[in-house]
Amino acid sequence: MTDRMTDPGPGLRTVHQLRALTVELDLLAAAFAQRHGLHPTDLRALIALLDAARAGTPATPGRLGRELGVNSAGTTAVLDRLERLGHVRRARDPHDRRRVLLEVTERAVALGQGFFGPLIGETVALVDGLSPAERATVEGFLASMREIVARHADGGGAG
Question: Residue 43's CB: how many other CB atoms inside 10 A?
C-alpha cells in the first residue's frame, strides 16, 4: 500500500511541479519589475501589448483595461506610468483618428530581451529537442491547463 504523503501520485506531483514553476516565474517577473521601476500590473500590461502585437491585434486602452481587469482610470494610470518610463507609445489610429492605439517601444523590448532572453533561449532549445509527439503533448497539456485556470478564475470551477 502506498502512503499518499510519501507518494502523492502523478497527478499531484504534476500539480506541485506547476505550483513550483509558477512561484519561480512570479519571482523572476517581480525581480524584473522591481529592477525597472514597474508595478506588477505594468508588467502584465507590457506582456498583453506584446501578445497583441504578435497576434496582429490592434491594442487600445479599452481592450487593455478589459484584459487587465482594471477600470478606465486604472488603465490610464498604467499607461501614463509606462509612457513616462518610455515603454509604451500612444498613437492615433490612422484609419479612425478618434481611436488611440498602443505599442511597446523598442526600449522596452530590449529591456525584456536582455532580462528574459536567456530564459527564453533555453526554453526554446529544450522544446526544440523534443520529438513532434512530445511537443504536441506538452502544448496540449499547457492549453488544457490554461482553460482550467481560466474557468476557475471566472468562478466557473469553484464549487
Answer: 18
Q: How many CB atoms lie within 10 A of CB 132?
A: 7
Q: What is the dihedral of CA 54, 132, 144, 142, to 10 degrees?
A: -60
* 135 Cβ contact partners less than 8 Å away, ≥ 6 residues apart: 127
Q: Can you state the angle between helices 106-128 and 40-55, rounded to 10 degrees? A: 70
Residue 12's alpha-carbon distances to 5, 17, 152, in angstroms, are 11, 9, 18
What are the pLDDT digits (tens) for 11-52? Answer: 999 999 999 999 999 999 999 999 999 999 999 999 999 999
- The C-alpha atoms of residue 54 and residue 8 are separated, in whole angstroms, by 39
Q: Which amino acid is at 4?
A: R
Task: Indicate if the alpha-carbon torsion angle 31, 114, 69, 79 is positive or negative.
Answer: positive
State the amino acid at position 130 in one-letter form. L
Question: Quick one: how far is CA 36 from the chain centroid?
Answer: 17
Q: Do residues 53 and 63 lie in contact, with contact meaning Cβ atoms separated by under 8 Å?
A: no
